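Q: Please design a sequence for this.
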């Protein structure tokens, strides 16, 4: 029996001093049960955590361990992964040769192409050979401001040997 896995769904009553919930638990052999997932009475789901603070809360209690969510469908079989890597950095990884699109007010505002170009504005077509395209249907502007009145604002042009061989400068 030491190699046997056991699973159970346990209900927890609020009268026991906690929130009503379902706990999905498992154990190996005769060891103690480990909580794998909790569903609270308000519909919040915790995976790896018994007290989810939001509707879906994923937790990996191990330190220096990545925690990810993956999204796939019949077209995007490699899919997109969201999560926290082992160093704690937030990660968005589109494993497909597709764009990453950001929307506000149900309108596409920014696109990161699969080639690494960024388009900001309401037309997601990058300018050929450019890493950054700003595009709107009307006037287009770029504002660079210092956080203080004594600060500087500038755009540098250059290469690996000379980062500021050309410069637009205000200061």
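A: Design:
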């Amino acid at each position: 029996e030491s190699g046997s896995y056991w699973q159970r769904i346990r209900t927890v009553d609020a009268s026991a001093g906690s929130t009503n919930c379902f706990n999905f638990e498992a154990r190996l052999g005769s060891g103690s049960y480990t909580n794998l997932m909790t569903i609270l009475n308000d519909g919040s789901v915790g995976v790896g955590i018994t007290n989810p603070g939001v509707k879906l809360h994923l937790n990996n209690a191990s330190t220096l361990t990545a925690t990810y969510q993956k999204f796939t469908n019949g077209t995007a079989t490699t899919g997109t992964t969201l999560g926290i890597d082992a160093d704690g950095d937030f990660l968005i990884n589109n494993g497909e040769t597709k764009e990453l699109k950001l929307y506000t007010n149900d309108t596409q505002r920014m696109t990161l192409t699969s080639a690494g170009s960024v388009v900001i504005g309401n037309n997601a077509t990058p300018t050929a050979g450019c890493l950054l395209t700003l595009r709107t249907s009307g006037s287009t502007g770029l504002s660079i401001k210092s956080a203080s009145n004594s600060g500087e604002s500038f755009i540098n042009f250059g290469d690996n040997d000379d980062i500021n061989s050309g410069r637009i400068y205000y200061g």
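Q: Thanks. Anything notable?
A: The first strand starts at residue 5 and ends at 12. The chain has no helices and 14 strands.
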